[in-house]
Amino acid sequence: MTDHSAPRYNRTKAFDENMMNTQEYIDYCYQQQTEIFVMAKQNRKDERLKYRVEGLMQAGKVLGIFSHQQATDLIEKAHFETFNETIQQRVERKQSLRDAITNSDDDYINIPSVIRKNRQKPTKTAVILTVFLTL
Hints:
Blueprint: H1 13-18, H2 22-41, H3 47-62, H4 68-83, H5 87-102, H6 106-109, H7 113-116, H8 124-134
């Protein structure tokens, strides 16, 4: 009779020493996620890296290394470290800019991005400062 069970591997000391522990795995996921955000900040994309990191995150959840919330927190932390704003803040800021472009809101678009960042609508002070800076 043939044995069709999964092969048994002899764990050796070298194998155990080369195993990645849980914290190393989490750190690796964080480092890879940060790399994706840094590339996005530089307007570069790497779809293979993106999908690989998504796989790493899914594997971490399936293997019980971290929960869905912990994975979300890891992504949020990497995003904040890279962009100095939360994912939600960045989404809202980018949406404000898209809305301003769609509505031809020159007052908003003419505000320097350093001032405009994280603002929903221009304030009088920002408009005056913009006029002053363009003189």
